[in-house]
Design goal:
Layout: H1 3-16, E1 20-25, E2 28-32, H2 35-41, H3 45-54, E3 62-66, E4 77-78, H4 84-95, E5 99-104, E6 112-127, E7 131-141, E8 147-149, H5 151-155, E9 160-161, E10 168-170, H6 177-193, H7 198-217, H8 226-239, E11 242-255, H9 257-261
Parallel strand pairs: 3-4, 5-11, 6-10
Antiparallel strand pairs: 1-2, 2-3, 5-9, 6-7, 6-11, 7-8
Pfam family, one: YqhG
Protein name: YqhG
Length: 263
């Protein structure tokens, strides 16, 4: 996952959660949290319990994040794919249902149709004795069926708002969101199948070598023992290659026709 995608994901998360984005100039992201996000992310239960008892004024914290892994600024928290903070934010999005609905803002003074897109962020985990995670985003236009990659990145510069703007109506979708999810899944699986998986071949080779060593360590009469079976299962769990797909979040995005044509 590219750091620019991490930055865009973070910005969208905080905007959807009602935080005030103070600065969003990659790689820096400064946000003023609200009470809800402070409670979820900042681990200050005693502070909020004290305020409830005393009736004091809440003072949510600010977050100063950076997706530049070379940054030496002590006041900035470095965030990257696999970092504890990003996993915490993924979990928060999942707990909230991870679905949003946004509309493209425009200045038209006549009735303007907005076309529905389903957008999904998906984590792809390549696991063996090591682990690599990628975050991919896809969009499906729910009338034409057009499917595009890097969807959230393409949405990044658009003025999106949570309430439908004036002089606007939404077009009814012809493709059900559940069908669009299956299209994205097929698109992604076809892409994965076309990749070279040397990592999986290397992991399988190492697994076979360790199993061979295990067999040499135990003689034939011990190969049915509990100790042998436990060690064999541990080797399989350590090296067995697997690819896991995890839904992170998504939403319905209503865009003007010409906007969708230029994504």
């Amino acid at each position: 996952m590219k750091q620019a995608e991490v930055h865009n994901y973070l910005r969208r998360f905080f905007q959807a959660g009602g935080a005030e984005v103070l600065q969003s100039t990659p790689p820096k992201l400064d946000v003023q949290l609200n009470k809800t996000l402070d409670l979820e992310l900042m681990n200050r239960p005693f502070y909020w319990h004290y305020l409830e008892k005393t009736g004091g004024d809440p003072n949510p914290l600010k977050m100063h994040l950076s997706t530049n892994m070379q940054s030496t600024a002590k006041a900035e928290e470095k965030v990257h794919f696999g970092s504890p903070r990003l996993h915490q934010i993924f979990a928060s999005a999942a707990d909230k249902g991870a679905v949003t609905r946004l509309y493209e803002q425009h200045d038209e003074q006549s009735q303007t149709p907005l076309y529905p897109w389903l957008g999904l962020n998906i984590r792809i985990s390549y696991t063996c004795h090591r682990r690599r995670d990628d975050l991919r985003s896809f969009g499906v236009q729910l009338i034409s069926g057009e499917t595009i990659d890097a969807f959230m990145k393409r949405l990044s510069p658009l003025p999106l708002v949570p309430a439908i703007p004036d002089y606007t109506f939404t077009m009814a979708h012809l493709i059900q969101p559940t069908s669009a999810v299956q299209r994205i899944k097929k698109y992604l699986l076809d892409d994965i199948q076309g990749q070279k998986h040397t990592w999986a071949n290397e992991a399988t080779k190492r697994m076979e070598e360790d199993l061979s060593l295990l067999d040499r360590f135990y003689d034939e009469r011990d190969e049915g023992s509990d100790a042998y079976m436990l060690e064999k299962e541990a080797i399989h769990q350590q090296y067995q290659p697997a690819i896991e797909l995890t839904f992170i979040n998504g939403g319905l995005f209503y865009l003007r026709k010409d906007t969708g044509a230029h994504l």
